[in-house]
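Worked problem 6 (solution included).
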Amino acid sequence: MVKSYNERRGFGFVACERTAAKFGRDVYIAKSEARLATEDGSGRLISTLPSASRSGDGRLLPPTLVEEDLVRFRVRMNADGMPQAEKLRRVRKFAGLVAVAPEAEAGAIGRVNSEELGLAFGQREVLLRRAHCGQVRLSVGDWVSFCVDAHGSIVPMEALLVLLVPRRTQVLEQVLGCFALSLPRSPVCEGWPVQLDLNLDCHALADRIILSGLPGDVDEGELMRFFTKHGATGVALARSRTAVFASVAFPSSGEIVKFVGRGVHTFSDDKDTRLARLLLSNRACGSSKTSLPGLPAPVLSPGEHAGVLMLRWSPIVLARGYIVELRPAGVQAEWSVVDALSGGFSKHSSSCRVSGLPSNVAFEARITYSATCGCSSDASDASTWCVAHPSSTPAPGTGYWPQVLPVTPSHQHLALAPVTQAWPGMWQHSPATMAPVAPVAPSVHTPPGWNCAHGFGNPPPSTPELRAVHDGEHALIVSWAAAPQATAYVVELREPGALRAE
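Solution. The predicted structure is:
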């Protein structure tokens, strides 16, 4: 694939996993070879290429190579001992719709339907092997671009060099990639020994990549030196109780799709060219080990009757479901999973009612979530202690029902912000603004105007997210967390400083 090409300067580079593994760098493209790539076998210019254009008098201007063009080439070593492409030819790309998505295993096979391929070869369906998709997690209905080996003997044909075509509005909860990243590190100082590579678990989302497994000595600058070459706009580090995570922000899903679509990335650091590899990882693909940051501590409050507790938490767009755990507080007891009547807590859940508890025991709770890729999060911090009895009153000025004030763990590292402060956009609610959920006794403090006809309290809606559309349209995207009890929504907009909303 063409990584870059500058027509004015007359050179570019090809990114190829096989040549990168052999030579340790990208392959150089000379201007003369780039010109040959746009000709057919007889030396005539190919007028159907997308980069071809015509002058004012109708003459065909030489088309140029562009980024993400698929090419076939041979390699020779130039006078400087560097790999250079020769006999370069551009390969036709096709577009198609994923009919059967391949599973996460390396040998899995799916299928793609393409009208363009049917017109060219009389065969609309091609095989889609997981090994040809990079580290992108494809779903049924995704649009992809690919090429085929028209001269091969394999029937049916296979889609090669598959790339996901980003949607205009990517689904926020979709995991675009779940993989391991092997990232080389530079020595701390010149002359010092080389550090071990970073082996990170990664989750690619619509607008960011979440990294886990970071050692404590990694900083934002070290990660940005690599990710800024792939379009990243910022890195935020955060620490949970047990691990360090990083959130790498990108302007759109297009940059993320390009990154996860290739298995090897070359980058220059301290005058050396290094290779970063994207790999399948058992740890990053549905294992029992956690590789996602935990939620904020849930809020535990007494229910309307003795033996009942109300639990609410901050939902996250990434979650496929939640696991709620409860235990007696202060005695280091084992955590017990709360069984939901429906078989589990769905991604739309943000609260639950636990009954059948002793009314003279203080409890604490925690939350864990799982993503669509099957990976699990770190467990949240435990809630404040609460007795399952309606007569228990909150501590003065807190709004909580703790029997003992929470203690800050002695092992907490204050150098990094906790996850909830570092990445506020990951959660659909801020814990400080959440209100009790139905059913709640009328004596509990509930914001005015949110009582339904039965006297129960409904939670206020979450703060919506407002984003601009980056394709030149005069439009905005408004997204918010769905409320299970809602039957309809009213969306209002107003200009900054205006008193009236529409």
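Discussion: The CA atoms of residues 438 and 453 lie 12 Å apart.
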